[in-house]
Amino acid sequence: MKRDTPLPPTQCAAEGCRCTITRGWFCYEHWTAIPPKMRAAVLAAFNASRKAYCRAPRDEQERLNKAYATAFEACQNHLRRITRSMNPVAYDARDYADKLINGGAPTKFRYVNGRML
């Protein structure tokens, strides 16, 4: 079923991400960072849960909702693991333009959630 009106914007479900999205759970970068099998599992669980909504017996709905919640949580845990292993380091472009700054060595800046530490 297609919607006539677009969904209101919301935030990406990845921890610490401030991207605004209009569909799905994650922004493009986080969605593509999830392995394809995990993406397929969360989509299948969501669609099964949505299809059974108000049509299946209550215990079946609860089982499908738990399966969806488990698959979604697995995606979030995967993103937490890979985010911690990444090293968010940026280099100051001025160091490459002027060799007299800091002896020509690039200055490293650490960024977390878009803020310089």
Describe the structure.
The structure is a single chain. With 117 residues, the protein is α+β, with helices and mostly antiparallel strands. The protein folds into two domains: 1-86, no CATH class; 87-117, no CATH class. Helix content is 47%, strand content 12%. It has helices at residues 28-33, 36-52, 58-85, 94-97; strands at 10-11, 20-21, 89-91, 108-112, 115-116. The protein has a three-stranded antiparallel sheet, with no helix packed on it. Strand 1 and strand 2 form a beta hairpin. Helix 2 (36-52) packs antiparallel against helix 3. The longest helix is centred in the middle third of the chain and has 28 residues, at 58-85. The radius of gyration is 21 Å and the shape is globular. It starts with 9 loop residues before the first strand and ends with a strand. The mean pLDDT is 76.
Can you count the beta strands?
Answer: 5
The order of strands across the largest sheet is 3-4-5
> Span between N and C termini?
47 Å
* Content of β-strand: 5-15%
Structural class: alpha+beta
Mean residue pLDDT = 76
Order of helices and strands: EEHHHEHEE
Domains (count): 2
Largest sheet: 3 strands, antiparallel
| Unreliable sequence segments | none
Number of helices, counting only DSSP H or I runs of 4 residues or more: 4
Q: Kindly provide the radius of gyration, computed on alpha-carbon positions and rounded to a whole number of angstroms.
A: 21 Å
Please tell me what the overall shape is: globular
Jot down its keywords:
single chain, 117 residues, alpha+beta, three-stranded antiparallel beta sheet, two-stranded antiparallel sheet, 4 helices, 5 strands, 47% helix, 12% strand, globular
